[in-house]
Write a structure and sequence with these properties.
Number of strands: 0
Structural class: mainly alpha
Number of domains: 1
Radius of gyration: 16 Å
Distance between the termini: 29 Å
Strand content: under 5%
Length: 144
């Protein structure tokens, strides 16, 4: 079955909105302390103490997720934003999650594997390759 142009447009929009909301929510935990997060100071402290990531890189990662999620939802600077999010996820995989294996864990105190970050990486790569699609600010502004 061949998808119609409209089906592809709607599919890209749904993909962008879902992954954008996901990145925004995780960024909001890190930046604002929303949704049970630690906020920027708490996140910077945790990243420094547990992962030895300096504060400037913590801020960069946190704001990339926060604003990147918003940008992806609206399809603004999509390819560039998706590249930043892809880099974020690759770093998360190799710096945090790979040692826990592939699968997410439901065991208290056990680290989560990298399957979730890998999925977000794949979606980010798709957005780098396809762009935002016609239902986006990028399309309106004729960006990329």
């Amino acid at each position: 079955m061949q998808l119609t142009k409209e089906q592809i447009e709607i599919s890209l929009l749904l993909l962008r909105v879902i992954v954008g909301v996901t990145f925004f929510a995780h960024g909001a935990q890190k930046v604002m302390g929303w949704f049970g997060g630690y906020g920027l100071a708490g996140t910077a402290g945790a990243f420094k103490n547990y992962m030895h990531i300096p504060a400037p890189l913590t801020y960069l990662a946190s704001f990339t997720e926060f604003f990147g999620g918003i940008f992806i939802i609206f399809g603004f600077l999509t390819r560039l934003t998706a590249l930043g999010l892809l880099i974020n996820m690759v770093v998360a995989i190799f710096k945090v999650h790979i040692k826990a294996g592939f699968f997410l864990s439901t065991e208290p105190g056990k680290s989560n594997g990298y399957e979730y970050n890998l999925s977000l990486s794949a979606i980010s790569l798709v957005l780098i390759l396809t762009g935002a699609g016609p239902l986006s600010i990028d399309s309106i502004l004729k960006i990329f």
